[in-house]
Amino acid sequence: MSRPDFAAGFYGKLPSHGDFLSRRLPRQFIEPWDQWLQGGIAASREQLGAGWLDTFLFSPIWQFGLAPGLCGDDAWAGVLMPSVDKVGRYFPLTLAAKVPSNRLTALFDPDCGWFDALSELALSSLEYQFDLQRFDADLERLRPDDFLPARPERAQASPLLPGSAKTALYFQLAHGGETPRAFAELGDMLKDRFLARGSIWRS
Questions:
Q1: Cβ(129)–Cβ(88) below 8 Å
Q2: 80 exposed, middle or buried (CB, 10 Å; 0-12, 13-18, 19+)?
Q3: Separation in Å, CA 36 to CA 73, 92, 110, 164, 191
Q4: Can you spell out the DSSP letters for 106-132?
Q5: Second label for 111, Cα 20 to 30 Å away, from 51, 70, 152, 186?
Q6: Confidence at residue 37, expressed as pLDDT on a 0 to 100 scale
Q7: Residue 99 β-bridge partners
Q8: Which CATH architecture has domain 9-149?
Q9: Nearest CA to 29 among 98, 83, 86?
Q10: What is the pTM for the complete model shown?
């Protein structure tokens, strides 16, 4: 059986090249993402004036998760970093991958490590001897599903009372060490129920 297409790609500016670059990210993701970024940059330039460039350059790397419906029909996760092209035009670099929508919150578990690996690779694009082909090959290998533990199928939902519209979510844990993963799974269940088109951000 073939694996789902969760290979990571990138979009944006790199100091080694003179224009926008993209790899393995579909138009359905890039178009709404680019529109949102362009609008945010324009608004922040207007609000910050002369202080915009310093604010942009010293911005942290943002780790994000997008529910289905925000950038196409799929869930996405990745990192967003300030960058610039070879001729000095500033625009962020995005590294992102399609992810299982029911595992979005689990990627933010400190033990997962995918965001850390992605952030480290993004920073490597600023190195003097940057190699685009090696960068792209390393990125393609950073599949989010390779970093996620097996999903415990212990989360269940049931009515509080027979015929009640109110629902109780509960878990069966083998030991206390499973609690962090259980809360990540709970987060995905709550997101799907109440924040169907929400996003998660962390810096």
A1: no
A2: buried
A3: 17, 12, 28, 41, 22
A4: GGGSTTT-HHHHHHHHHHHTTSTT--H
A5: 70
A6: 98
A7: 75
A8: 3-Layer(aba) Sandwich (3.40)
A9: 98
A10: 0.84
Residues in contact with 199: Cβ distance below 8 Å, sequence separation at least 6, in sequence order: 64, 65, 66, 67, 70
User: d(Cα 75, Cα 106) in Å, to the nearest integer?
Assistant: 13
**Residue whose entry in the numeric block shows the structure tokens 């100091």:** 15
> What distance, in Å, lies between the first and last C-alpha atoms of the chain?
36
Per residue in 144-156, pLDDT tens? Answer: 999 987 765 555 5
Spatial contact of 8 and 97, defined as CB atoms under 8 Å apart: yes
What are residue 192's phi and psi, to 5 degrees?
A: -65, -35
The string of pLDDT tens digits covering residues 36-91 is 999 999 999 999 999 999 999 999 999 999 999 999 999 999 999 999 999 999 99
Report residue 146 CA to chain centroid gap. 15
